[in-house]
């Protein structure tokens, strides 16, 4: 049985609650978009995040981040940006129908708008990821008890209990 946070009912509630924000924010201009990928690793809800390569140009080299990046003029919207960047960085193709919604924009250190896109990726085998060595140094699996104290690896999976706890009102 799936944990409540990743059940069909939880997904439906989340999509419904994010529908208005998604309609409003999806096509709004932004500097970048990231995918917040909810997944299951050995039956445990997890978040996938990356450690950016220190060889990257720009201010985000070496940062811990969700997969994503700059919006490209050819991108249809921020959802397309997040999905394209996730595929480029990790070799993970997430179909658009797995996107649950668009979250409120956040701002990076330089005040650029970054739009988080929430998606249910489902069961994930970390060994199936194919990180782009130009962007992600190497792949590792690193499940830990709490994101606030998790050791960081180039591609890591962290149990998302604390995130789910903070989203209980939403889910």
Main sheet overview:
8 strands, mixed
Helices and strands: which structural class? alpha+beta
What kind of oligomer do you see? single chain
Q: Could you tell me the mean pLDDT?
A: 76
Q: Strand portion, in percent?
A: 25-35%
Choose one word for the global shape. globular
Radius of gyration: 15 Å
Using DSSP, what is the number of strands? 8
- The H/E string reads HEEEEHEEEEH
User: How many angstroms does the end-to-end distance come to?
Assistant: 17 Å
List the uncertain runs.
139-156, 159-171
H/I helix tally: 3
Helix content: 10-25%
Report what the structure shows.
- 22% of the residues lie in helices and 26% in strands.
- The chain has 3 helices and 8 strands.
- Strands 1, 2, 3, 4, 5, 6, 7 and 8 form an 8-stranded mixed beta sheet that branches.
- A hairpin with a 5-residue loop joins strand 6 and strand 7 (113-123).
């Amino acid at each position: 049985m799936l944990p409540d946070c990743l059940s069909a009912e939880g997904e439906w509630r989340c999509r419904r609650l994010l529908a208005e924000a998604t309609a409003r924010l999806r096509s709004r201009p932004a500097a970048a978009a990231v995918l917040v990928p909810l997944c299951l690793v050995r039956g445990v809800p997890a978040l996938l995040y990356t450690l950016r390569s220190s060889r990257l140009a720009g201010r985000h080299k070496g940062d811990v981040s969700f997969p994503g990046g700059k919006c490209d003029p050819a991108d249809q919207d921020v959802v397309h940006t997040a999905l394209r960047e996730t595929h480029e960085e990790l070799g993970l193709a997430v179909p658009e129908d797995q996107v649950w919604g668009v979250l409120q924009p956040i701002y990076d250190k330089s005040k650029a708008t970054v739009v988080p896109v929430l998606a249910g990726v489902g069961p994930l085998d970390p060994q199936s990821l194919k990180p782009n060595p130009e962007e992600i140094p190497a792949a590792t699996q690193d499940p830990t008890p709490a994101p606030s104290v998790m050791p960081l690896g180039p591609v890591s999976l962290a149990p998302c209990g604390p995130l789910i706890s903070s989203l209980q009102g939403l889910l």
